[in-house]
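Figure 2 data, in text form.
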Amino acid sequence: MQKSFRFYLHIPYEQFLSVYRGTHSSIRTKTLDGRIIDFPARNAQPFLTRDGINGLFEMTLTAENKFVALKKIS
């Protein structure tokens, strides 16, 4: 059974560049239901614009907590 988590991300472009520099490799955020999750920053990379990464996202995981998908909702 898959599980989903919704959360907002607001990461400025310059801050996300630390992923490319090797300074950071993960993102820590709080879900809408109050859980703290960590996930590889590379999963958010497709959503990077000149303004950074902004919006409401939904991450889907397997029952074993393996990454399935990340999609932007708004």
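Caption note: The longest strand covers residues 3-11.
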